[in-house]
Design goal:
Number of helices: 11
Order of helices and strands: EHHEHEHEHHEEHEHEHEHHE
CATH topology of the largest domain: Rossmann fold
Radius of gyration: 18 Å
Structural class: alpha/beta
Number of domains: 2
Strand content: 15-25%
Largest sheet: 10 strands, mixed
CATH class of the largest domain: Alpha Beta
Strand order of the largest sheet: 3-2-1-4-5-10-9-6-7-8
Length: about 270
């Protein structure tokens, strides 16, 4: 069964190419992946989908060509209207298993850093959303992922299921399941034991049962910074997070720690729900 990936791009060619590169480096991409590259005409252009050809958008063409040259099947589409609403509709229409977006900015407030479209899509769909930014690439060989979990077992198992469902043999994935005890990195801090966190144990056990190699880590510190430091220390190909809550304002829905990781990481970050 194919793993369907939606790749919504804007007119930024370097960002679109980073999204395309992520798709081509998914395990067994040429055998199991079907990609849809999508350009949404923003309302400010005062045009409809019938007025703009896919071939008139260099970033979209570049992304589609890069993916096709890797042997992956690509569908090319143009839509109009609200970008976030069009993307969410497309996720449902094609039955996307994952949506690969680009959108980090290095200045401004957090919402601007993340990008309003990326933010709105992330809080509006229950399917995994991966943010690539303008850089980040896989190192080759086994796929190394950091899976930071809190104490919510149900949410943490969403992360585990995403990892286990990635295309390719699970034996080629190496996962570092991480629990961070907030701010407990001072001298005399209480013991920090991985086995004391039920959600972390459940994720590690689930992944091992699926054939994924697992490293179990429990450390103290500032949560977002520790996640990023861990990803760097293991040279991770990506960070798999969870953080949506279905109540309150959107800032709460996304979660401040997840938002901090998504806008600060120099590697792809996936929000699983």
């Amino acid at each position: 069964m194919s793993y369907r990936v939606l790749v919504p791009v804007d007119r930024d060619e370097s960002r679109a190419l980073a999204q395309a590169h992520y798709v081509t480096r998914l395990p067994v991409a040429t055998e199991a992946i079907e990609a849809t590259v999508m350009y949404v005409i923003p309302p400010r252009e005062f045009k409809e989908a019938g007025d703009v050809a896919f071939e008139d958008v260099p970033a979209a063409v570049g992304a589609a060509t890069h993916i096709e040259e890797a042997g992956v099947s690509v569908e090319r589409i143009v839509e109009d209207g609200s970008p976030s609403e069009a993307i969410v509709r497309a996720i449902d229409d094609i039955g996307a298993d994952e949506t690969v977006m680009g959108g980090r900015r290095r200045s401004g407030v957090a919402r601007v850093l993340l990008g309003s479209t990326v933010h709105d899509v992330a809080v509006s769909t229950e399917t995994p959303v991966t943010l690539t930014g303008e850089g980040g690439s896989f190192s080759g060989g086994d796929r190394r992922l950091v899976v930071p979990v809190d104490r919510d077992t149900d949410r943490s198992l969403h992360q585990a299921r995403y990892v286990a469902a990635l295309p390719g043999p699970p034996e080629e994935i190496r996962a570092t399941v991480l629990h961070v005890f907030p701010h407990q990195d001072y001298r005399g801090a209480p013991p920090r034991e991985f086995d004391d966190v039920g959600a972390a144990v459940a994720v590690a056990d689930f992944l091992e049962d699926e054939g994924v190699a697992v490293e179990r880590r429990a450390v103290g510190g500032e949560v977002a910074r520790t996640i990023l430091k861990t990803a760097s220390s293991v040279d991770a190909d990506g960070i798999v997070t969870a953080g949506r809550n279905r109540s309150g304002v959107q800032e709460v829905l996304l979660g401040s720690t997840v938002q901090d990781v998504m806008v600060s990481a120099e590697r792809p970050v996936t929000l699983t729900g």
